[in-house]
Amino acid sequence: MSKISKVVLAYSGGLDTSVIARWLQQTYDCEVVTFTADIGQGEEVEPARAKAEAMGIRGIFIEDLREEFVAEYVNPMFRANALYEGEYLLGTSIARPLIAKRLVEIARETGADAISHGATGKGNDQVRFELGAYALSPGIRVIAPWREWDLNSRERLLAYCERHGIAVEMKRGKVSPYSMDANLLHISYEGGVLEDPWAAPDESMWMRSVSPEMAPDEAAELELEYRNGDITAINGAVMSPAKVLESLNRIAGAHGVGRADIVENRYVGMKSRGCYETPGGTVMLKAHRAMESITLDRELAHLKDELMPRYASLVYNGYWFSPERLALQALIDESQRHVNGKVRVRLYKGNVIVAGRQSDDSLFDEDIATFEDDAGAYDQADAGGFIRLNALRLRIAAGKGRK
Questions:
Q1: d(Cα 50, Cα 46) in Å, to the nearest integer?
Q2: Helix axes 125-136, 96-110, angle to 10 degrees
Q3: Helix (H) or strand (E) run with residue 387 in it
């Protein structure tokens, strides 16, 4: 293979990626360009600049991608009502294609030969980063240090830092025992005691939500306004996509909404136990389905539900830029043309309760649905023939003695 002269590294400024930056410089004798994305992880990203500069890195990219993240990735996914294995709202999965896209774009802008990431060889993220990169730049080279080096423990990483003069910011107080990933949609927790599926997580682990038992005794009521399947306003206040999600996170988290404890099937073959906090996303899913319930045709709604598990698996497994996901998205987006109106929800002790929905595009007809006199809008006698026709195949099979 040709020599690598420049690499773009997805860089957080933490221990792992700081070691990777120096390791790349020494192992490949190359220039390193760092890319740090603010996607709402809740920590300052600017300190990563000083850490990169201290290692002699000149090409430093730090970008606020929160609005793009929600508008171009989170919202399209929620139009599909995507849930992986019935529970996971895909908070980590949906962030990876955006980071992969920017890695590839920066590589082009800077003339880099390769990109690099800090995902381990046992997880899903390596697959997501690399499938996304190859879909956008088929000739790109990817360096995954965790699949190459022997620095496979925190002690070895720290020893490497000491040998090579890498400043390590030791956090004061108790160090979290969990492997965590955060963005504007969620926080995930893995490792530590969570590796035992029988062990309950400690209450102190959760960062974005109170426990339902400690939530307020009075419900919060929200009126969410939808346009083409996306929330555009909360309680009459028009907001950008990122501001919508920030607001929902804050309000729903304060009412104990959005916790999940899951054992999931990773794409690489193993089962993994993780805990997730997705307060705003939990509200978004519930309210979106309520909005669709009065605006979508029955068969279109059912078709979406049939396709959703496939869509969710594509996102989870890293196929965001695949032709099949793009084709599904086109269908889903077309289905959202009339998903307009308002949904009223109440948040109470971990629950999201739909309290009302209305739309100028509603297909709900009270004159037909009423249990009172419908003035001839629906002839109930027609139901007899409808039932007999649909029962015909069942009656034939029963007459042949089939069960």
A1: 8
A2: 50
A3: helix 382-399
Measured CA to CA in angstroms, residue 336 lies from 34, 60, 96, 296, 331 at distances of: 38, 39, 25, 8, 9
Domains of the chain, with CATH numbers?
6-69+90-164 (3.40.50.620), 179-296+338-358 (3.90.1260.10), 375-399 (no CATH)
Q: Which two tokens stand for residue 267?
A: 């794409």
Rg (CA), the chain: 25
CB distance 184 to 69 below 8 Å: yes
Alpha-carbon distance of 237 to 244, in angstroms, equals 10
Angle at 208 between CA 241 and CA 268, to 5 degrees: 80
Place of tokens 């504007």: 184
**Residues 6 or more apart in contact with residue 397 via CB below 8 angstroms:** none
pLDDT, tens digit, 9 for 90 and up, residues 242-280: 999 999 999 999 999 999 999 999 999 999 999 999 999
Q: Are 98 and 63 in contact (CB under 8 A)?
A: no
**CB contact at 8 A, 220 and 279:** no
Residue 30 confidence (pLDDT) above 80: yes
Structure tokens at 116: 């690099």
Q: Which residues are designated catalytic? A: 16, 96, 125, 179
Partnered with residue 181 across adjacent β-strands are 188
Dist CA 151 CA 186 (whole Å): 29
pLDDT at residue 218 tops 80: yes
Query: Residue 167 is which amino acid?
Result: A
Q: What are phi and psi of 27, to 5 degrees?
A: -70, -40
- Look at residues 222, 223, 238, 182 and name the one whose alpha carbon lies nearest to residue 69: 182
Strands, E assignment, 65-105: none
Q: Beginning with the edge strand found earlier in the chain, give each strand of the sheet holding 187-190 in spatial order.
A: 179-182, 187-190, 271-277, 259-265
Has residue 236 got a pLDDT over 90?
A: yes
Using left for φ > 0, alpha for ψ between -120 and 50, and beta otherwise, residue 227 falls in beta
CA distance 127 to 123: 8
* Per-position b or e across 204-235, b if 16+ CB within 10 A of its CB: ebbebbbeeeebeeebeebbbbbeebbbbebe
Instruction: Name, in order, each residue with C-beta under 8 angstroms of 215's C-beta and a sequence gap of 6 or more.
Output: 254, 255, 256, 348, 349, 350
